[in-house]
Here is the input.
Amino acid sequence: MENKHVLIIKGSERSGSFTNRLCSEAQNLLVGCHIDVFDAFKENFAPCNGCNFCEVNGRCVHGDLNDFFKRFENADLIIFASPVYNGTFSAPLKSLIDRFQCYYTTFYANGKVQPIKKRRKAILIAASGRDGKRSIDFMNWQLKCAFSILNIEFIETVLCSYTDTVPQYDEALNKLKRSLAYEEA
Ligand SMILES: Cc1cc2nc3c(=O)[nH]c(=O)nc-3n(C[C@H](O)[C@H](O)[C@H](O)COP(=O)(O)O)c2cc1C
Here is the structure.
């Protein structure tokens, strides 16, 4: 992974957040990589409202994520980290996922030509108060649908479950370490 560009997209601003802890661990493990962090709670961007401007113009009516999209397109590895809130992503991350709609419209407007040339990899990190099984399946599916035309291969899903009682943090960390070590090899 040396010299690779890693984009970490964070979706919790809770003090003591397990997803943020896992992101920090990933940062420590990815020695020699260029790490770029997008903290969705700290960024101010508009939600998609389906205005269809992108369908006609090939870009979103809002320019507030232009810089983020460049970083997203250049990344070799994308780490998407979210708490489970009501069975899915935290609100700013759900909002961010909706904003990828402009790639979809461009894809169809251009005769289904892949909008991002570079092949990238992605890891989903999540934390849930309870077992989180149904939620993580749903989140996986949502993200795979949203990223299906974005030249991304999902390599791992890391869930830290039972954070309300006995957090399964070590299991999640070991899984994360294994997947990053595999990428390293
Ligand atoms: C608004 C809200 C909704 C939540 N919904 C769920 C849920 O549907 N399922 C679940 O297992 N845990 C749920 N939780 C618990 C969080 O997933 C848990 O606290 C998790 O550790 C948050 O991630 P973090 O530690 O990275 O902040 C919810 C917490 C909040 C604040």
